[in-house]
């Protein structure tokens, strides 16, 4: 299953986030495959697309950063998956 993780990047804990990201690379835990990660040019928001069937591992990842980042994790579907559902509705 695919999940889009969005996270606001406020001024709060800015230097700590940079330090931790550069030190660790912020890899997802076992059971979560990162498909990509992007940041806005203004340093105010990030996006990460991950794949996992293990919601506990997603929870673990969010918990590791919860002291400095507020994650929003939402299940998403691909164009193909959406088309398959919509085709059945037409």
Give the tally of structural domains: 1
Number of helices: 3
Percent range of helical residues: 25-40%
Biggest sheet statistics: 4 strands, antiparallel
Q: Which second-level CATH architecture applies?
A: 2-Layer Sandwich
Order of helices and strands: EHEEHEH
Task: State the main characteristics.
single chain; 90 residues; alpha+beta; four-stranded antiparallel sheet; 37% helix
Describe this structure in words.
It is a single chain. The chain has helices at 14-24, 55-65, 79-89, and strands at 2-8, 33-39, 45-51, 72-76. The protein is α+β, with helices and mostly antiparallel strands and 90 residues long. It has a single domain (2-89), classed as Dimeric alpha+beta barrel (Alpha-Beta Plaits, 2-Layer Sandwich), CATH 3.30.70. A four-stranded antiparallel sheet has the order 2-3-1-4, with no helix packed on it. A hairpin with a 5-residue loop joins strand 2 (33-39) and strand 3 (45-51).
